[in-house]
Structure formats: C-alpha cells, structure tokens
Amino acid sequence: MKTSRVLIIIFCILLLIATLLPLPIYAAASEPSSWAAPAVEWCKLNNLAEGIFYSDYQKYITREEIAMLFVKAYDFLEPSDEVVDSDYPFVDKYTPMYKEYIQKAYQLGIVSGYGNNTFGALDNVTREQMSVMLVRFLNMVILGGIDYSGYLFYGDGFSDSQKISPWARDSMLYLYHLGIIKGVSGDRIDPKGYVTREQAMVIVYRLLTNDSIISNIQSNLYNSKNLYTVKSYDDVKKAIVSALMNGDERIYLKSEGGYVIKDEDVLNLFLQHDMYASSIEYGPVDRVYYIKFNYGIGEEQVKKTISKAKEIISQIIKPGMTDYEKELAIHDYIVTHTKYDYDNFLKDTIPEESYTAYGVLINGVGVCQGYASAMHMLLMLAGIDNVIVTGTAKNDSFSGGHAWNIVKIGGKYYHVDATWDDPVVIGGSELLSHKYFNLSDTEMSKDHDWDKSLYPACN
C-alpha cells in the first residue's frame, strides 16, 4: 500500500513538472516562419503536398518528400490522369505513401538514384541537390527546355563555390543568376547545406506564381547562338537544315516582316531533312518559335556521322566538278560502300542505326532511310540541294514503305534511289547500277508512289 502511494505521488510530481516545462522545439516548428507563411498557405490551397508534410516546417525535407512536391507542382501545371505504369526502380527503404511520387518523379527525369538501385528516400536534400532537381523540373515545364550553361562565372563571388559538386555547378549558379536561390551568410552559397520543408515550398511557390521568373528564363532565348531570323519558308528551311547538319539540339526562329511560321511546314521540312531517325518538339514560345530535335542516335554518334561525311566529301569531290559529277560520285560511293541490312529486315529486328546516316557512313549497313539520309548529308555538304522522300515502292519481291531522294541539278529536280541502285551480284562480281539515277516523276511512278504535293516536281 505504501509503495503504491509513493508511486502515485511521484507520478503527480512528474506531471506537474511537465506542465511547467517549455514546449518542445518541434511544437514551435509546427507553424511556418512568418516569411514562409504565404507560400505554405498557397501550397495547402493548391494541394501541393499532403499529410504530415504540413507540420514541422523547419524540418529538413527528405528526398521522398521533395519528389512529392515536384510531382504535385508538375501536375499543377500539366494536369494529367497518367498512371505510373513501371515497377518501382529502387530497392532501399521508403515510406509507402511516397512510392508513386518517387516513381513518377523518376520517370519525368526530375530525380535520379544514387546507383546500385538505391534512391535514399529518407535522406535529407542539400541545396545543390535541389538545384539540380529544380533545373530538371524547369526543363520539363518550359516549352523548348532551357539552356543553363555559361553561368559558371557567378561562382567567383562565393568563398565556398569550390565545394559545389561538378554535377551541380551549372544548375546551382544558373538558379542564382535567376534569383531563385540566394547566397547565405554573406559570401557563401552553401551547396551542402540542407533545405527545410518551408524553404522548398517557398521556392516552388515562387516558380509557380511569379511570371517574371519564367519571363527571365525565356529572355535567355534572345541571346541564343541558335536564334534564326526568318522572313520566308526558305529561311525556315535553311534554319532546320543548318541545325540538322550541325547536330544542334534546339533552335529558335524569330519571325519578321509579317511572316507566319506554320506547324505543318516545320514538320514537313524536318521529315525531308532528318538524317538521324529523330523526332521533334515544336511550337511558339513567348515571342519566338522553338524546335527541339530528339535524335534517334546519341550525341556522340551524330558528331561522328558529321565528321565522317566531311571526310568522305574531301576524298571524292574534286575541284572543277560539275554538280552532276558530284552527285554521281556521291551516289556511287554510297552504293559501293553500303550493304542493305537484309538479315535484320527479314527478322524485323532492324536497329535504329540502320535508319540513319550513321549506319551507312560509319557501319556500312543500312535500310532505305539510311541510304537516303547518307545521300542527303553528302549532297548538302557538296552544295547540292536535295530532300528525302518518304513514300512506297513495289517490285516482284517487295511492296511497302520506302525512302529515296529528290536532287536539284542544273535548276531541275530528279529522283535518285540509291537503295534500289545497290550493286547487283552476278557471278560473284558486283555490278554498279544507275537504273534509279535522275529519273522524272513519270519514270519513278512506275514502281514508286509519294505525295506529290509535298515535293518538287521532277519533269
């Protein structure tokens, strides 16, 4: 009995002491800082986070939490019912409620793993990590993407700039240039410092509500080396051809003189001059028109293709040659140095490279699109205007989609099909054919078909 009384008295004393002690730190942190309160309230109203995220505002944000914040920000700008359809790519621990956010952020390219199939979902996020995620996010939502290179000189103003990891340097200094992130404690940028929940919400709030930031990003377009002034269809053609011949990732077209750039013209010109099995994104953005090329082969392969093409031209094109002689030399080089990828054609396993100039000029193997792409590149380097034609063709052994070229020689246009002129083997010897060299529309129409409204007439 006495023992019970003692325990009760001790419990009451402890309870009294507890009521007199100051509240724990996390209780004070359950309210956002005054400078962050408007952003936090806006994020709540627009459902940019959920659950326990709206508490402990000064707590460092974790990688799984920031994945949720960016995915919800993306959905705010680009509403979609898209369902995450891939398996969870990481093997380490995560909080179940964040699983789909991590998956989608990973699919969008906003976040990436550490390697060894780990993500570090519970790890805190540093300022440099968030900078990289922010730039990736901007690349997703800014039409045409952004160019965030060329701002390294901003690092000269910080005493700790050498602490920025190489993979984060461009991103962090670009965001500093835009005013999205700021230095700390005078002359420090603090790349390894952690980001709190409320700091992350303030940054996202600024991005989604401040038009001047987006305008600032767009203004960089006007200083781009890939900005072309266009006043006609031919100017648009020159810009697209120049970009593809140089392997540029994106270009911007600024229309003048009342000229209106048409989407259908851009698409058709791209299809007539693409040599890399690419796709494009295009459309008006702010005061310019952007075109982004998504090459079907890697950047290094594009560079090798261009370099090889220039080397070939230097070998086979001689001073004093007429355009006809140049065209003939290029045609003969292609058909005698290339084998049709027949085995993969039969197996329906044609690799991407065989559809490109890379497959023909580097590997010596290709299908019709590759032959036409290689012809196009070499002819353009030789100063001969031409386009790639896509249509259909048929003979005794084949009927289906096909590609060839239309070239301009002596002011007139002609059809050239290097694929169907590929050497015929008779008695072990290859016989060079010119059966499909410089044909008229009437001659070509015997076994080829194409939309004649899209291409120059060959008469």
Helix and strand topology:
Blueprint: H1 2-20, H2 25-28, H3 37-45, H4 63-77, H5 99-108, H6 127-141, H7 166-178, H8 197-209, H9 211-219, E1 227-230, H10 233-246, E2 250-255, H11 263-273, E3 279-285, E4 288-294, H12 299-316, H13 323-337, E5 339-340, H14 342-347, H15 357-363, E6 365-366, H16 368-381, E7 386-394, E8 399-409, E9 412-416, E10 424-426, E11 429-431, E12 437-439, H17 441-444, E13 448-449
Parallel strand pairs: 1-2, 5-6
Antiparallel strand pairs: 2-4, 3-4, 7-8, 7-13, 8-9, 9-12, 10-11
Task: Provide an overview of this structure.
One of its GO terms (cellular component) is cytoplasm. It comes from Caldanaerobius fijiensis DSM 17918. InterPro entries: CAP/Cytokinesis_protein, Papain-like_cys_pep_sf, SLH_dom, Transglutaminase-like. The protein contains 17 helices and 13 strands. The chain is α+β, with helices and mostly antiparallel strands and 459 residues long. It has three domains: 25-220, no CATH class; 224-294, Ribosomal Protein S8, Chain: A, domain 1, CATH 3.30.1370; 299-454, C8orf32 fold. Strands 12-9-8-7-13 form a five-stranded antiparallel beta sheet. A four-stranded mixed beta sheet has the order 1-2-4-3, covered by helices on one side.
